[in-house]
Amino acid sequence: MKKNIFIAISILCCTILAMALIQKKDPLKDNFSVAAKRYTTLLQTATDLTKYPHSINKDGTLAYYPIEEWTGGFWPGILWYMYEFTGEQKWKTAATTWTESLESNQFNTAHHDIGFMMYCSYGNALRFNNNTAYRAILVQSAKSLCKRYAPVVGSIQSWNPRKSKGEKHQWNYPVIMDNMMNLELLFYAAKTTGDTAFSHIAVRHAETTMKNHLRPDNSSYHVVNYDPVTGNVLHRQTLQGFSDNSTWARGQAWGIYGFTTCYRETKDPRFLRTACNMADFFLDHPNLPADKVPFWDFNAGQPGFVPDWQFDPKKYVPVPRDASAAAITCSALFELAGYVNAEQSKKYLDAAQKIMLSLSSSTYLNKEGANPFFLLKHSVGNLPSDREVDVPLIYADYYFIEAMLRYKKLKQK
Q: Which residue of the set 59, 113, 280, 350 is catalytic?
């Protein structure tokens, strides 16, 4: 009986999605119209070029991160995407100003996220302004990132030494799945300079991640801690997921996207296979909701998954969704679909379009101005630390807009 009800609900959900696609075949124009309203207000509010829009505080005010934090590049990247879609000069002017405000970050060696910060900003800028200074800044950024690489480990160190969640272990060389997203900067530097040392580090990091971050079922660990002397794996854990053996949704999304990028840059079939396996885990998981916007962790609150932090199952009911994980996956799938056979391509394109449609609905799209600044609602930053839960996040917007532009290009082909 329960099985029949589940099947009926699934059929109904698919029918509703299909009808919505027929009635609204191309949501891009409407979505970018909403984006223009939100980002016009954000431009008017965020005027200090040392404070980068990040999220919303609990009192509804705009939350910023400083220049050294990891999300600074997403706002200028969004502005470049707005210019790409609309062709309006105001977006290009603002994008240039905000991009150039990050110039000093090219020397940032404090963490691994310089790829996020500099390639999402300057990398996009170069598509519209072939500025030699921008190229030099990106090459220097790549050099800074390489300083965190240790050949004995074969990975770029993500964070400086710190305690694990709940202080269960000491992490002296932690590497996180998110780090896959910073490799595109290294591939760019290799192509620009002709120095294969950059791409060697990127490939070696991807190989090490593939070996040590993935489980047999193609789910992923968030954090792998290495011995910096021997390179041996000491711990496989999580910081932002539910438990060490659970699958944090955004971590899985980073992996799908990161390995897809690595395949694009290398044409190494191992990276394509890994991207597909991680995507299949995500899309085929029984806990993925019908709208394909995942819960913040695929295993949150389930038996057999024990967190290292104080979890109160009554605090977050229902389990929060993570629109940022959906947006990242959506963008990755539109690209991944172009590298696989016809059957896989259809699967990934169908899933990407369904995710895009879901995020375009009033459930997730900030059509009515629930907050004045951001496009998407309902993302999760770090639930175990009770931080940024069910809020808009700048990177959710960035990857959703990127996904829509990728969709547009596919339609034009």
A: 113
Q: In angstroms, what is the C-alpha Rg of the chain?
A: 20
Selected catalytic residue, list 59, 178, 291, 297: 178
The span from the first CA to the last CA of the chain, in angstroms, equals 46
Catalytic, 297? Answer no
Is the pTM above the cut of 0.85? yes
At residue 142's C-alpha, the angle toward residues 139 and 143, to 5°, is 90
Taking a C-beta distance cutoff of 8 angstroms, is the pair 95, 125 a contact?
Answer: yes
Residue closest to 337 by CA, chosen among 325, 354, 352: 352
Is 57:63 a contact under the CB 8 Å cutoff? Answer: yes
- 113 catalytically annotated: yes
**Residue 318 backbone phi and psi in degrees, to 5:** -70, 175
Q: Residue 99's CB: how many other CB atoms inside 10 A?
A: 27
Kindly report, residue by residue over 279-304, the tens digit of the pLDDT.
999 999 999 999 999 999 999 999 99
Alpha helices in 285-385 (DSSP H): 323-336, 342-359
Give the integer Cα–Cα distance in Å for 300 and 249: 10
* Residue 35 near residue 404 (C-beta atoms within 8 A): no
